[in-house]
From TrEMBL, chain A:
Coiled coil: none
Protein's UniProt name: Amino acid/amide ABC transporter membrane protein 2 (HAAT family)
Subcellular location: Cell inner membrane
GO MF annotation, one: branched-chain amino acid transmembrane transporter activity
Lineage of the organism: Bacteria, Pseudomonadati, Pseudomonadota, Gammaproteobacteria, Thiotrichales
InterPro entries hit by this protein: ABC_transp_permease (IPR001851), LivM-like (IPR043428)
Metal-binding among keywords: no
Keywords from the UniProt entry: Cell membrane, Membrane, Transmembrane, Transmembrane helix
Transmembrane segments: 61-77, 83-103, 110-127, 158-175, 245-271, 283-306
Annotated membrane topology: Multi-pass membrane protein
Keyword Cell wall biogenesis/degradation: no
Single GO cellular component term: plasma membrane
Main subcellular location of this protein, as a coarse class: membrane
From TrEMBL, chain B:
Keyword Signal part of the UniProt annotation: yes
Signal peptide bounds: 1-31
TM helices/strands, residue ranges: none
Domain Leucine-binding protein: 36-390
Sequence similarity: Belongs to the leucine-binding protein family.
The entry's keywords: Signal
UniProt-recorded name of the protein: Amino acid/amide ABC transporter substrate-binding protein (HAAT family)
Highest taxon above the source species: Bacteria
């Protein structure tokens, strides 16, 4: 076999479970799962950079590039096939990250954060000025087709949901594989001691560049999936508030496991929905209190709850 | 072995979690009560647009829903409830990244009978196709983009809009300028650099080209939205000395422009047109220079004609919220009264009957009469008005004088024609009284 680790098994087993849930749960919950998978992927991209000590405050840039690339392919070139849209979104993000990477790979810490933020806000300003792309209102994206198959009504909803689950979880599994690879461990080394890393014969610049490109591609994928679920894109996708949310989700859910940001995004989304329902005028306060409590009592994020249980379970089995 | 056991545990946990989710959600579905109609109300309750738009709209919704439930409205609306059914509002914040998912939740989980909402044009664009898909009566009350029925859903069944789209304001502004200002040879604009500002300038300058061919545009300023400082733009306008300065600024930006421009004689060198200037009248008073041309995104506030309904609305609003209703409040009142008129006419809260009655409906609102006569009876048109500002020192209050009214067919495109095409065609089919 392929030597799958626990997380990968969980992710692969999660695909049929999630798809099944799509038929069982009420549609509106499924809808939240679907959009959470899209934004969750971007949080995941933020998290893998965090592992290398890089905090990207502008990951919305690639989220937006992915969404707009797919949207523009649909709007101007009439492309509606989901596979082509996904590939376009990822390739454009990858290409942009390849170029921007030459600049960003030279910076660390707050400088990296601010520079990534600046780049994302440049795109925001640009898109807000472009009337052809609907300016701040954005534009709508038609429903996708699947290799020539154009489903309608409920079938279309299920098809898009399934088409979101599979790439999202596969991508997470691949990222997990990447983090366990030598390339992935370079990230940790980068965070701990860059000079020593260079002495070991690896270029820190190159490692950051590659990491940045991987994160961008994953965010682009998330952007396409999210935009297709919403049927609409607007420059808000690359605004700093959106990017900030991704950082927050990764901090809140913890960087310990690849599943954490995906799960954390959904949990936060559901908490938000019920906070709005309970108190439409002051829901941010409820959300803020929950976030504060999480940071105070679970400094390593929500995932540490699960890890702690695991650790104690291992202890008892050892005894 | 150990790994497998953990995997099983994980699976078990996720199945249990999902079972919990299912039971939690299904139990919240309440049996339908025919005596009560659930109304989803979506406006900005937080963020930058909440203060100037979202909160005044929410206030108007609370006021009207209470009054309807108690049967306190004057005239034709004095009956209790929607065709007898009490209204139970569910307020939702439009300031959300997941607008579509929130809408679906409102329809599917909260099982609302209708949704009234959306201030941002971006929201309306995203929600319109979803509302048709969900087959739920949805009334857009404020968003201005003409694209909703012109490009996005061309044959609507479930979506209505009870306010005229933004084209009307700028066409009327151009007409007012041509009607009241002598010798216009140059004009310019200062608008916020986002969709609403760009569209407003496009419509105004397009209208000027048609109405006053000899005049030409000398300067287009597009500062950032919420910039707050307009020194450079004001300098540019001062050096060009245009006869007319058009601005669709609103809220705090508009007030900043008045204060900064007023101090630098912008208003005395050029005639300034503020299409959304109405909200500043109460707050700025004498700071708005006399002679400024002011609009209110429809015949709202001080531009509304006297009527029992308007008197009641203004008085009840001031009594309850200690401030005057602004145009978002008027727009919200329009949407709620539209739904009430339709339900009362159908004498039923059944969705199909209400929609049938809503199509092409004419109804009275505080700002006058609304006719649902575009987009197959789904899009409202309304006459509008502009006025010139005059500060009355004796009473210490600003007033609008030389008010000119424009009937609906004069400032709105006819059925089947897109706004921009209509302006460029030289207002083909416009009937001005």
């Amino acid at each position: 076999m392929m030597n799958l680790d626990r997380t990968e098994k969980l992710l692969l087993a999660g695909i049929p479970i999630l798809i099944l849930l799509g038929f069982v749960l009420p549609e509106w919950v499924v809808n939240y799962i679907q959009v959470s998978l899209g934004t969750g992927l971007v949080a995941l991209a933020v998290m893998i950079q965090m592992r290398a000590g890089l905090v990207s405050f502008g990951q919305g840039l690639y989220f937006c590039i992915g969404g707009y690339a797919a949207g523009m392919a649909g709007k101007f070139m009439g492309v509606s096939d989901i596979f082509i849209l996904l590939i376009i979104g990822m390739l454009v993000s990858l290409f942009m990250a390849f170029i921007a990477g030459f600049l960003l790979r030279r910076y660390r810490e707050i400088f990296f954060a601010m520079l990534s933020l600046a780049l994302s806000m440049i795109l925001y300003g640009l898109l807000s000025k472009l009337e052809v792309l609907g300016s701040t209102d954005g534009f709508n994206i038609p429903s996708p087709t699947y290799l020539g198959w154009a489903p309608e009504g409920d079938t279309a909803k299920h098809a898009l949901y399934i088409a979101t689950c599979i790439p999202a979880l596969l991508c997470a599994a691949l990222l997990n594989r990447y983090l366990r690879s030598p390339m992935g461990f370079i990230g940790e080394a980068l965070r701990e001691n860059e000079i020593r890393l260079e002495y070991l014969g690896t270029s820190a610049h190159r490692a950051v560049h590659i990491k940045y490109m991987i994160a961008a591609t994953v965010s682009g994928l998330g952007g396409v999936l999210w935009a297709l679920a919403l049927g609409h894109v607007d420059p808000e996708m690359t605004n700093w508030t959106t990017s900030g949310q991704f950082v927050f989700i990764s901090i809140l859910s913890g960087v310990g496991n690849i599943v954490a940001p995906l799960f954390g995004t959904f949990i936060l989304e559901i908490v938000r929905v019920y906070a709005v329902e309970a108190s439409p005028n002051t829901w941010q306060m409820i959300l803020g209190v929950i976030m504060l409590l999480t940071i105070i009592f679970l400094p390593k994020g929500l995932w540490s709850l699960i890890q702690r249980k695991k650790a104690s379970a291992e202890e008892t089995t050892q005894k | 072995m150990f790994q497998d056991r953990l995997l099983k545990k994980g699976l078990l946990a996720s199945v249990m979690a999902s079972a919990f989710v299912v039971s939690a959600f299904s139990s919240s579905a309440v049996a339908e009560d025919k005596k009560e109609v659930k109304l989803g109300v979506v406006t900005f309750l937080s963020g930058g647009a909440a203060g100037p738009f979202g909160i005044p709209a929410r206030n108007a919704a609370e006021l009207l829903i209470d009054a309807i439930n108690k049967g306190q409205l004057p005239g034709a609306y004095s009956s209790v409830g929607l065709a007898g059914a009490q209204i139970a509002p569910i307020f939702v914040d439009e300031n959300s990244k997941q607008k579509v998912a929130d809408y679906k939740k409102l329809v599917q989980k909260d099982e609302v009978d209708a949704v009234i909402g959306y201030i941002s044009s971006g929201s309306c664009k995203a929600i319109a196709p979803v509302a048709e898909e969900e087959k739920k009566l949805t009334v857009f009350f404020d968003c201005g983009t003409s694209q909703v029925f012109e490009d996005i859903i061309t044959s609507p069944k479930y979506v209505f809009r009870t306010s005229a789209h933004a084209t009307m304001d700028n066409v009327a502004a151009a007409r007012y300028v041509v009607d009241t200002v002598k010798d216009v040879s140059t004009y310019s604009g200062i608008n916020q650099n986002y969709a609403f500002g760009q569209d407003s300038w496009r419509d105004f300058s397009g209208s000027m080209k048609v109405l006053k061919e000899s005049a030409k545009s000398v300067s287009e300023q597009f500062p950032k939205v919420f910039a707050g400082q307009y020194g450079a733009e004001i300098s540019a306008l001062l050096t060009k000395k245009p006869d007319i300065v058009h601005s669709s600024f609103w809220g705090g930006d508009m007030e900043a422009l008045v204060i900064q421009g007023g101090g630098r004689q912008l208003f005395s060198r050029s005639k300034v047109v503020l299409t959304g200037g109405e909200t500043g009248i109460e707050r700025l008073g004498s700071q708005i220079p006399d002679g400024t041309i002011i609009g209110a995104r429809g015949p709202n506030g001080p531009l509304a004609e006297d009527s029992a309904l308007n008197d009641w609305f203004v008085k009840a609003y001031v009594d309850r919220f200690k401030s005057l209703p602004t145009y978002p409040s008027y727009h919200m009142a329009q949407a709620i009264l539209g739904v009430k008129s339709a339900a009362d006419k159908a004498n039923s809260t059944d969705q199909a009957a209400t929609i049938e009655a809503f199509k092409g409906l004419e109804f009275e609102v505080p700002s006058g009469k609304i006719s649902m006569n575009l987009a197959g009876g789904h899009q409202a048109t309304q006459g509008t008005a502009f006025g010139t500002y005059k500060f009355d020192k004796a009473s210490g209050k600003g007033t609008l004088v030389n008010i000119k009214r424009y009937n609906a067919a004069c400032v709105n495109p006819p059925e089947g024609m897109k706004s921009l095409e209509w302006i460029e065609s030289g207002f083909k089919g416009a009937v001005c009284k």
